[in-house]
Amino acid sequence: MDAVKDIRSGIKNAFNTEHIISKTKGDRVIWALVVLLTLASLLAVYSATGSLAYKNYKGNTEIYLLKQVLFIIGGIFLIYLAHLANYTYYSKVAKIAFMLSIPLLLYTLVFGVKMNEGSRWIRLPLINMTIQTSDFAKLALFVYLARLLSKKQDVIKDFKKGFLPVITPVLITCALIAPANLSTALLLGASCLLLMFIGRVSTKHLLMTIGVALIPIAFLIMAAVVRHGKDGANDEVHVKKGSTLFGRVDTWIGRVESFIYGSKDDVDNDAYQVNQAKIAISKGGFLGVGPGNSTTRDYLPQAYNDFIYAIVIEEYGLAGGLFIMFIYLVFLYRCIRIYKRCPYAFGAFLALGLSFTLAIQAVANMAVTVNLFPVTGVTLPLVSMGGSSFFFTCAAIGIILSVARNVEQLEGKNDEVEIKE
């Protein structure tokens, strides 16, 4: 109830600037990093969408910029509300959120909006907006996993009492996300295993899980090698795209093949995106061609979303790309400090787990852009053009700041006690 009162109070005073500043707590460095990333987002999105907006909206080049401004305002407001609640409140709703995410993922697989043989989105009635349910599932899973790890510390080394209850929700969530979005499922699984390792889960149990997960990945690599060895084989070699699952398997194999060997006909597949990203990076040099001077944006699909990092490097050079990377590293470092300072296991695991998933997502997006990882559908947190992923990223940051806020309050009380003594 206290959390609900805090949130209601936050909404009531949302437009009171002095009240907002006085109530804004948590790690100030993280707040500053959020501002820096959103400013970078405005510049990059405006540049990446200028030509597209001119074409689609009869010369109105600011339409996507205005949309992004609204996304950022809404996202920062969400961070503010989420950080007002005591983080222990999220433990109470963790199980409900996780249980709700399962039918949502199932519904998305069967009835979701289909794009590229994959079903990742559901359309919300009335507002006619699509959301990616895997984003909600990721957030719910990490909160629930932090709760489980904190409660199972006494038996965490035991396979039946500790490992199985913790790994089961991870496997269920990843299995439901994988058919439509394998890359997200793999990144989510890796983030969870890393958090479980820090949460004192037995190393042999984790290695066993990794070994099992590597089996389908090995099959994908073998299938890509065999397909490439067929030298442009006939249609019978490719998996028939008659269903969502088989269509996605064919896409996965094709992406691995393009990543390993490149492509002879890269106009109609993911290799085209990677090649255009390389062109953007090569044009950028060290200091870039300057804000708004990108030319690759007119040829690079998803320049405002999955490949926005390429536009950042083209316009601001290697220096700009390294600066964005530095921001994410500082963000991770500050979250690790929160983890160390938090006296309670749930808060510590919560802050660390959510920071891991955001940092790993950022690294994966940047790695795809420079061709160090096969093409995925993950966005660059807080920089890519807004959508459901943007809002769930903001919610995760708000929860991290909630932990930081309560850690500061505890440390403040301890300091007062020491002074009195």
Topology:
Layout: H1 2-12, H2 17-23, H3 28-56, H4 63-84, H5 88-111, E1 113-115, E2 118-124, E3 129-132, H6 133-151, H7 159-177, H8 182-198, H9 203-229, H10 244-261, H11 270-284, H12 308-341, H13 345-369, H14 388-420
Antiparallel strand pairs: 1-2, 2-3
Helix pairs in contact: 1-4, 3-4, 3-12, 4-14, 5-6, 5-7, 6-7, 6-8, 6-13, 7-8, 8-13, 9-10, 11-12, 12-13, 13-14
What does this structure look like?
By secondary structure, this protein is mostly helical. Helix content is 71%, strand content 3%. Strands 1-2-3 form a 3-stranded antiparallel β-sheet. Helix 6 runs parallel beside helix 8 (182-198) and helix 6 packs antiparallel against helix 13. It is globular and about 60 Å long.
Keywords:
three-stranded antiparallel β-sheet, 14 helices, mainly alpha, globular, 421 residues, single chain
Number of helices: 14
Estimated radius of gyration: 22 Å
Structural class: mainly alpha
Q: Strand share of the residues?
A: under 5%
Q: Assign a percent range to the helix content.
A: over 70%
The separation of the N and C termini measures 33 Å
Weakly predicted, low-confidence segments:
233-244, 416-421
Number of E strands = 3
Q: What is the element string, with H for helices and E for strands?
A: HHHHHEEEHHHHHHHHH
- Main beta-sheet annotation: 3 strands, antiparallel
For the record, the count of structural domains works out to 2
Shape: globular
**Strand arrangement in the largest pleated sheet:** 1-2-3
Rounded mean pLDDT is 83
